[in-house]
Amino acid sequence: MTEKGLCIVVSAPSGSGKSTICRRLLAACPDMEFSVSFTSRPPRPNEIDGKDYHFVSREDFQRRIERGEFVEWVENYGEFYGTSGRALQDLLRRGKDLLLDIEPRGAKEMKKKFQEGVFVFVLPPSLDELLKRLQKRGHETPEAIQKRFAQAASELEEVLWYDYAVMNDDLDTAVGQLIAIYRAEKCRTSRLLGAINHLCSSIKKEV
Ligand code: 5GP
Question: Is 103 in the pocket of ligand 1 (CB under 6 A)?
Answer without folding.
Answer: yes
